[in-house]
TrEMBL record:
<dbReference type="InterPro" id="IPR029056">
    <property type="entry name" value="Ribokinase-like"/>
</dbReference>
<keyword id="KW-0547">Nucleotide-binding</keyword>
<dbReference type="InterPro" id="IPR017953">
    <property type="entry name" value="Carbohydrate_kinase_pred_CS"/>
</dbReference>
<feature type="domain" description="YjeF C-terminal">
    <location>
        <begin position="1"/>
        <end position="280"/>
    </location>
</feature>
<keyword id="KW-0456">Lyase</keyword>
<dbReference type="Pfam" id="PF01256">
    <property type="entry name" value="Carb_kinase"/>
</dbReference>
<dbReference type="InterPro" id="IPR000631">
    <property type="entry name" value="CARKD"/>
</dbReference>
<keyword id="KW-0520">NAD</keyword>
<protein>
    <submittedName>
        <fullName>NAD(P)H-hydrate dehydratase</fullName>
    </submittedName>
</protein>
<keyword id="KW-0521">NADP</keyword>
<keyword id="KW-0067">ATP-binding</keyword>
Amino acid sequence: MRTGSTQYPGAAVLSVTAAWRAGAGMVRYSPPLGDSTPSLGLPSPAAAVLATHPETVFDGGDLRSCSAWVIGSGTDPLLRAEPEHKRLLKLLNGADPVVVDAGALELVGARKGAIAAPTIITPHHGEFTKLWRSCGLGELPRWWGDLRDNGSSDRVGTSHLAEAALCLAGCLRVSVLLKGSVTVAATPNGRHLASGPATPWLASAGTGDVLAGILGALAATHSAEVRADPELFAELGATAATLHDAAARLAADDPAGNGSGHPITALDVAAAIPSAWESLRKLDAG
């Protein structure tokens, strides 16, 4: 995990917690190189992770091979130090599967079609828009405004979302997990799957960090398969979104996903992952 920063140490905690809860056998945390000194009495992201999960392994930022990487959650590209920038580029040019979230998305957008590692990116509506424009794909479809104005995909058919996600995946040559009420996973070679609609209680700060951690754990669990066939990210992305939603429904006491129940935090979602995992396993067995 190369997530979090002095500005957003909580993102490191949320993504690491989710990775542990989603079945990772070992989680290693690599603090961002050249990060600024914490202010306001905040802990460094590494200290925050250690206080929450002492079982986590820490290193000094080297690039030893591992099952999968999660990068970008809780980071700001404008504040990223040059040593960290270079390390992230090395990961994207490596062989290990990479989950790219939030502040690292621009690295993929700037190198469209030139990412060597098996990679999946996790943009929300605004981030997707920026990546679309960086690819020179022209104006987004007219229905795209419904997502922006309503904050959900209730008015937009899944086929439209899939078409847009597939187009961006083909341009960037990486898999895309387009997050929303309905989340769509699309691959460069045309595979796509959808999950949702999700409970509206997931529209809470930090839940994207949790989703990145879940997806990282699934990528690590299936690392050999993803290396052999990166198109597997369609199934892993949709599975991560489904598990994420199931955990939120349990945490909010909203089994129907219709907004009943009560407000939750991102950490509540992460804590509910094991119970959600078990409920989905029983559903599959049935």
